[in-house]
Write a structure and sequence with these properties.
2 copies of one chain form a homodimer. Chain A has 341 residues and is an alpha/beta fold. Chain A has 12 helices and 12 strands. Chain A has 3 domains: 4-47, 434 Repressor (Amino-terminal Domain) (Orthogonal Bundle); 59-162 and 296-323, 3-Layer(aba) Sandwich (Rossmann fold), CATH 3.40.50; 164-294, 3-Layer(aba) Sandwich (Rossmann fold). Chain A has helices at 4-11, 15-23, 30-43, 49-56, 72-87, 101-113, 127-137, 164-177, 193-208, 225-236, 250-262, 296-312; strands at residues 61-66, 91-96, 118-121, 141-144, 158-162, 183-187, 218-220, 244-247, 272-277, 290-293, 320-323, 326-328. In chain A, strand 6 (183-187), helix 9 and strand 7 form a beta-alpha-beta unit. The longest helix of chain A has 17 residues, at 296-312. The N and C termini of chain A lie far apart (73 Å). Strand 2 (91-96) of chain A pairs antiparallel with strand 2 of chain B, so a sheet runs across the interface. The first copy, chain A, binds a DNA duplex (16 and 16 nucleotides) through residues 3-5, 13-17, 19-20, 23, 25-29, 32, 47-57.
Chain lengths: 341, 341
Amino acid sequence: MPTIHDVARQAGVSASTVSHVINRTRHVREDTRLRVLHVMDELGYQPNRLARSLRSRRTHTFGVLLPNSANPFFAQVLLGIEAESYDCGYSTILGNANDEPDRELDYIDILLSKQVDGILLVSTGAYRQALDLLTARGIPVVMIDRSPGEEYDDFAIDTVLTENAQGGLLATRHLLALGHRRIACISGPIRLVPSARRVTGYREALAEAGVPLDEGLIVAGDFTHESGYRACRTLLARPEPPSALFVCNDLMAVGALCAIHEAGLAVPEHISVAGFDDIPLASFTVPRLTTIAQPAEEVGRRAVRLLVNRLSAPETPSRHERLPVRLVERDSCGPFRGANV
Amino acid sequence: MPTIHDVARQAGVSASTVSHVINRTRHVREDTRLRVLHVMDELGYQPNRLARSLRSRRTHTFGVLLPNSANPFFAQVLLGIEAESYDCGYSTILGNANDEPDRELDYIDILLSKQVDGILLVSTGAYRQALDLLTARGIPVVMIDRSPGEEYDDFAIDTVLTENAQGGLLATRHLLALGHRRIACISGPIRLVPSARRVTGYREALAEAGVPLDEGLIVAGDFTHESGYRACRTLLARPEPPSALFVCNDLMAVGALCAIHEAGLAVPEHISVAGFDDIPLASFTVPRLTTIAQPAEEVGRRAVRLLVNRLSAPETPSRHERLPVRLVERDSCGPFRGANV
DNA sequence: CTGAAAGCGCTAACAC
DNA sequence: GTGTTAGCGCTTTCAG
């Protein structure tokens, strides 16, 4: 591979001139500029960005840490992150924590030593340690989907969150408006803030409507198809099964749909199901899923924009974006028609 | 951030000694080793891998280029790539081509100038140009899922493919064995080799069984839910609709399931559906999807292993892995019960 | 077993 | 408008 010196020699100028042509960092006489460009082209010169980064202390690379990039919701967020990063001239190094906090921390070390310019983090649970590592280095971080809460305001970290509680509220209100009273909830892992907030919304809606809450109607899953399937079976086996389900993510809702079908019941005739996320699949389930839409891709893009902004203005106070959710009515929720089975 | 010189000074040794302690590149007296280790720990020293890479010409980073990381099949492959890379001490830079060949080529340039040690490529279609860029640089490449064909054997590129034709054969034979004769096929984009191979398997199975092929029963989708939905509607609207469907990927099969349900027909009573990929969701559709399983995650892991091997033995002749597929029988295929509708 | 010196390819400060 | 110089932080000969 030719170096910048090869180009310089060939074009009869100094390396710094070539550098300035490449980076438009100061004026170069038009004819020399063209000559340099021509030589670059001729030699097939590609700058070594490693060397450039070492010197300029900018790698134009972000680290992206996710619990699991194959989860459709995160996959969509990742799509937004990658797309916006590309548009802004950044590359993305991807790391999956696989829900193992240790792995998350290990990745943070790796990313830091690779000198990434910033990190986009959906933390698996090691909030405190992760943020300690990060802020010790003073590297910009945007936390996505999950935040450590107000206690961490001093960390000056940007966040992009969605209105989880509002989503739980909207979904449950919708079910109530359809006449349902025994509304169950399949939650995500309780330790996760977004999941907890969705359940909060659910509780609020019930309280608002004066419907007493049967705690046995809340069962926890872990955001996978399988867990939604199992939780739903548990619910159906109860002496007084619910007539509607608010499921805290679409993956589990799909599992629930499957369990209901296998139990010989119909959606929405016997049971209504509302999900959360509006993953692309949700438009094609049987029946099509009514759900709370989160702008996943936009979440990713916003996060990147925050990061890019912070790099150009490091001293800005931390910014917290909260994106709205909305109810998408499809075919999985119907009016209450009396206790089933 | 402390540098290796800070550590050296503090420990009273030379930088090269510290380097050797870190990289175990030659023996160091036990007590000095411990002292160095201690100082490193004390200062919270983290090597700057940029500098290291510039010098050693190894970045321990792979580039991963996919058509779309949110497609569940690729998402699963990516999971395998990321996991195995991590296990082997590599990071992964992710790039989505979004089915735009130009973007794929642009990403290749970026990855090369970031000096990645190798590239894992699921090409969007710019095979020839992509490989030209890559081989000109002599950088190791593993092509996944799609290969340019025998004509490119001189490029000495490793590949990991799956038995696509065999999959088409197995699925169609299964449908035939259930008594179906009018079996339609929803293919992927014709220009893509894997899709074409699956259709080849489908044709072979029909020929094998002496069932004449009605070309009108083959309709092309583009591997998305939506296209499967539309293709299925087209098929159902035909004067003599098929009694079974072989759909070239699960995403489209899900779309087909939805279309069939909306047409008031039942699976598998009226129509049988077989998919391809066995994405995680396939176990939870309504009804559960019979499909051809590809070991997606393993595909990713194998690809990384090939790359790692090649880095340690660059002169090895190119290796081509072909992973087997298998039929997973679930609930979406049933015996032929006479013409439907 | 250890140290000194050179240099990976680039950019930035300073001269002219 | 252009060139010279130094050096980012590390590894790797080469000496000892």
